[in-house]
Amino acid sequence: MTRLCLVRHGQTAWNLQGRWQGHTDIPLDETGLQQAQQVALALRDTYFDALYVSDLTRALVTARAIAGQHPGLETHIDARLREIGLGQWEGRLLTEIPTLYPLEWAARERDLVDFSPPKGESVRQVAVRVQATLRDICTAHPQAQVLVVSHGLALAVMLCCLENRPLAQAYSRVPDNAVPLFVECALGSDRC
User: Fold this and answer.
1) Residue 81, domain CATH
2) Is the pTM of this model over 0.90?
3) Which among 62, 130, 178, 181 is least surrounded, fewest beta carbons within 10 Å?
4) pLDDT in tens, 57-99
């Protein structure tokens, strides 16, 4: 069984402001850079066989800080680990979306799993790509310990898949920035 260490990227200015980032490539802010260094130090004595990271800057910078404590760590950049694509909602404050998109917001409230914002993706679509990534990681690294650096909702969906929880719980499972979570990769859930 593969053991995973899941880490959400450090804080960005948009995290602090309550703006939805999605695929928008926002850098870490000063706090986020400090968080990346802190999690790197916290994990410096933890052995990893490989590192998988989203291709967005906020995740890459966090991963590079951790990898700096692990010379020669096998690293894989994988776009399937990106945050949920929020389409026209990216860059918007969470508080303004219900006013600007009242019909779409009501549809989202009725169906957190299959709703997708205009030009965005649904939680179920994220689950499909995350589940495929998990399978690839666990197949390539059986009996290993793998670091995965990604994004809030992408990791929350991953946790739902790994823990066999309903995808509707994903928004309540978003991990804190730059806090490592260790989980076992035991796939086979039919929830994703």
Assistant:
1) 3.40.50.1240
2) yes
3) 181
4) 999 999 999 999 999 999 999 999 999 999 999 999 999 999 9
Would you state the torsion angle of the CA atoms of residues 26, 87, 126, 156, taken in this order, to the nearest 10 degrees? 50
Residue 192 lies in a domain: no
Q: Which residues are catalytic?
A: 9, 83
- The tens digit of pLDDT for each residue in 27-44 reads 999 999 999 999 999 999
Q: What are φ and ψ of residue 51, in 5° steps?
A: -130, 130
Q: What angle, 0 to 180 degrees and rounded to 10, lies between the N-to-C axes of helices 57-67 and 30-42?
A: 40
In a domain, 191, yes or no: no
Instruction: Give the separation between CA 155 and CA 83, rounded to whole angstroms.
Output: 8
Exposure class string for 87-101: b at 16+ Cβ within 10 A, else e: eebbebeeeebeeeb
Residue ranges making up the domain that contains 62: 2-150+161-185
Please count the structural domains in the chain: 1
pLDDT in tens, 136-145: 999 999 999 9
